[in-house]
Amino acid sequence: MVVLTEQIIKGKTRLDKLEEVKNLNLWGQDLDDCSILAKLPNLEVLSLSVNRLSSLKDFRHCAKLQELYLRKNDVKDLNEIQYLVHLKDLRVLWLSDNPCAEDPHYKQFVVRMLPNLQKLDNDDVDTINLDAAGPGPALNGPAPAPPAPSAPPYASPPYGDHRPQSRGSPATTPSDQGVIGGTTPGSVSRPTGGFSGGGGGRSSKNILYAVMALLGELDDDDLVYVRREIEQRLSNR
């Protein structure tokens, strides 16, 4: 069992308090326990693609969640969607490449359960034909009640602008990676000195050529997140 811990989160985000975390990217960490998410009340964008999560129950505490990326996990039961019904701000959900997504009426079921959703996997919700939906899986009782709110013993700190991070294909590219807290996944290492943005050094050009080559391996949705990452970096210069 690989448990998501406070130490891992702080190491990724470089933030001192869990309450300050609004963006979190933990692609490909073999995680199967994310119960600590209950301590991240201000989380807005979360990427946990390519892990081993089998349930969505830990996300029910993230009341401000807007985007949730869970490609290539192990969610088998569509009824797990019940844990997301009280997340009224959730607009983007990715569950493709989970066993539950193999259900022929998977998308119709999810959209009906989450009426505020705008994008499911690579589809705009408006393009999903709800008339084609069958009865769907039987719900095991009513949807779980949202967790009772508790008054935090701290004053709300001012938050900076945290934008969604980039994602990619796990086969050959740094999927769902959005560089968080200055770190990159182990699959793509950065030479010492890195890319300074304006230099023409040999190592910088090698990195540029490698990036250009990898772009050809990405599909359309991955390229969207790469573009968002680039825009964020340019705006911060």
UniProtKB/TrEMBL annotation:
Subcellular location: Cytoplasm, Cytoskeleton, Cilium axoneme
Annotated Gene Ontology cellular component terms: axoneme; ciliary basal body
Cross-referenced SUPFAM superfamilies: L domain-like (SSF52058)
Keyword flag Repeat: yes
Keyword Secreted attached: no
Source taxon at top rank: Eukaryota
PANTHER family per UniProt: CILIA- AND FLAGELLA-ASSOCIATED PROTEIN 410-RELATED (PTHR18849:SF0), LEUCINE RICH REPEAT PROTEIN (PTHR18849)
Chief location: cytoplasm
Sorted UniProt keywords: Leucine-rich repeat, Repeat
Phylogenetic classification of the source organism: Eukaryota, Viridiplantae, Chlorophyta, core chlorophytes, Chlorophyceae
Feature: compositional bias, Pro residues: 143-156
UniProt feature, compositional bias: Low complexity: 132-142
Originating organism: Volvox carteri f. nagariensis
Comp. bias (Polar residues): 166-176
Region (Disordered): 126-202
Descriptive protein name: U2A'/phosphoprotein 32 family A C-terminal domain-containing protein
InterPro entries associated with the record: Leu-rich_rpt, LRR_dom_sf
